[in-house]
Amino acid sequence: MTGRVRQLDEVVIVGYGRQRKGDVSGAVTTVRTDDMRQVADASFNRQLEGLAAGLQVSTTSGEPGGGVSLRIRGGSSIEGGNEPLYVIDGFPVYSTVVSASAVSGAPLNPLSMLASGDIASITVLKDAAATAIYGSRAANGVIIVTTKSGQSGKPKIAYQASVGVQTLAKRIDLLDARQFASLRNEALYDANPALGAHQYLSVDEIAALGGGTDWQREAFRSALTTDHHLSVSGGTRQTRYHVSGNYYLQEGILRHTDFSRLATRVNLQSQLNSRLATGINLSMAQTGGRLAPEGIITSLLLMPPTATVYDKVRGGYTLRNPFENIFANPIASLLEQTNTSRSFKLLGTAFAEYTFLPQLKLKVMLGVDYQSGHERRYIPSTIYEGKAAGGIASVGTSEHRSWLNENTLTYTATVARKHRLEALLGLTQQETKVEWVRTGASNFVSDKLSYNNLESGAVVTTPYSYATRNALISTFARLNYQFDHRYFLTASLRADGSSRFGAKNKWGWFPSVGASWDVSRESFFGPISHIVSQFKLRTSYGLTGNQEIGNEQSLATLSAVAYQFGGIHVKGFAPDRVGNSRLGWESTSQFDLGLDIGLWNNRFSLSLDYYHKRTRDLLLNVEIPWTSGFQTSLQNYGTVVNRGFELALQSHNEWGKMRWDADFNFSLNRNKVVQLGGNAPRYISGLYYILQVGQPLGTFYGAATVGILQPGEEQGRGALTGNANPKAGDRLYRDVNGDGKFTVSADRTIIGSAQPDFICSLSNRLAYGSFDVSFMLTASVGNDVLNLNRQALEVFSGQQNAAASAAERWTTSHPSLTMPRAKLDPAPVFSDRSVEDGSYLRVRTVTLGYTLPAGFARKLHIGGLRWYVSATNLLTFTGYSGYDPAVTTAANAVDQGTDQGVYPSSRTCSIGFSVQF
């Protein structure tokens, strides 16, 4: 039973403490950090994909240091946040971006400040028994990150280095110059047949074009990435230390984009005497990069291939799309704009722990989280975006300050060897302040000074400034009891008081209870214990909350306005929002039922969980009487339910010199809106989404296509085109309301959902002697993606480039049943043509390594040496036509699964080594 005992005695980090793995009653997953570091990426939370059941990871930007969206057991909030709470060395933080909005494009990931080489463990808390101790911040799950600490002994030096090459994982097929010219001729002819069939270019001119400009080839590149990590650790019986430094540089696959990180960390623990222990965890990081301007992906996809990067007649860059002035030259935008964001972050905690009795300990912790940001942008007058304004500059600074005080009293006792009790009592308080300022100017005498001399701009942009703060004070208690390692009970209660909510609803209470029974410890289990080494039943129920709605949402506010008074332009204030003194938390109740099975000394283990989450009091903007002076008010209405299954399988095998470990994770989640504000059955959100009772969040709402109008059908089916003068080749749409015609306002219907049927992953690690190979596969099945790039690329207007599928468009000689005709002035209708199956199977990582045998290492006077080669995002098998199916432009639950000009993910091939002294 040695293997079983070793696994069950592993320590798991939980909220405000740690437990033996065998004693845990909640749904908790410990991530293998070695697997996480196989993924070449700047952000540790993006590296978590596929490593925990119930955890879904989507890319919001593939840009270096770019954003990522995580969901633990589905999204629950409509107006509030859906991201999990991160607790780094005891300090609660969110992945929320603090920005002055002075730059353009997707923001950097604020968690990219933490190097994965500094992480010792990551624990994902999923059910209420594990998360309720964090109260009003735990409804979306909790991810606990613990960084490395030193061990007693001689100093140990470790150095890791890697270099990699990134390439665009997939290109989007577009028309070349000849094909585009033919398309434009058709569109012009359709608009005005009297001018002939070759109004743009003749047959000979088209033949002489060649392929034209490949804007994807001009914009994308092979890019380098390098990562260096150095650490020194050691200590005595009284004092232990771990000091590290990291330098990370990643060029972007889009030209003139990059990300860099320079970070250092000091972790120190000291046993001052037999009763008093102290410690400090301190990290500092300088991060930043050059960002891709907003809309650059859309621009380079739609730029006509007949346009050139440089103007051969006037010199310099071609300014814009010659046919449609909303699109600028994407190469000029990339290379000539200055668009940078840099930040400094300090995150530190210090603690003192005093032992009154062997069973009674008091721990006091103080923490600080400080971040300053600097954003700079300049658009020169030599490119299209800045030409009319004479150059545009904007600068901004932001500051985020948060302090934390945490006080915990822990009592442990063992009675008669079989009864073990652990009680925790705590008081914590945290305050966060955010400030930012932004200003700018335009119409400069010269571009040479860029944003460094705003006063030289003739037109000053209206300055903006903002300051806010929020505070949280909490008390909590937890009781863990176990009897004879067979029966386990855990109960917790937390009370949170938050400044974010109404005066009449400041406090919330969040209880939980969990129990488990290790049946395999019972005497009657003895006859099969050599086969079934663990059989443990778990269950839990509890309440958690979500306070991530922003600050001052319960208060009536004023906003600055400008108006004319007596012929003079003056400034003043006007009511901006009606107050709600009863505004409170979004409350989530969660039931969990779990089973843990181990076979053959836990060489094979299985964890199965069923959960049911109901989120009530959703924050929604509800319509209110017009006599109030406002149209809506933020109120606690609405209910969303998530329920699902999670399966985690592990296998550990050894045969002589061969070792084989395998992990399989499977997650199935069903999301459903149960109630909306004011008992409304549905709420249409923007142009593409709908919230509807009985449907999941992330539901797409548009027209359903039913084919292409053919010659002779104009008088009959023509009404289904939605056009006043239908012509053969127009797209047909379903008449949903049965009035015999199609209109956008009356005939939209549900056309897809971003929710997957299931997600899963498979990891394998095989080692023989000094060689090792590993790989991980990830998959998502049944999710739809709203591909707004495709919607734009299937507008066959001849004004912009189109997808290669335009070659199959309807013509009199090719009466297509799927693709419409070319048309100079189409009125695009959002339809199911833009909603695609986003299912995929991805070879996430492949790694081949060699570890120098211990005998050779000793001869070289080193502790160890390993070389490896690896690939990230090596292959993706999908029917999705966009760059990446695992993508979402927006991080909220309503707009999830949307691909609109997202910076593509890259394929990375790396080589590296690690050495210890």
TrEMBL record:
It is a multi-pass membrane protein. One of its GO terms (molecular function) is siderophore uptake transmembrane transporter activity. SUPFAM superfamilies: Porins. One of its GO terms (biological process) is siderophore transmembrane transport. It is found in: Cell outer membrane. It comes from the Bacteria. Residues 22-142 form the TonB-dependent receptor plug domain. Gene3D superfamilies: TonB-dependent receptor, beta-barrel domain, TonB-dependent receptor, plug domain. PANTHER family: HEMOGLOBIN AND HEMOGLOBIN-HAPTOGLOBIN-BINDING PROTEIN 1-RELATED, TONB-DEPENDENT OUTER MEMBRANE RECEPTOR. This is TonB-dependent receptor. It comes from Prevotella sp. GTC17254.
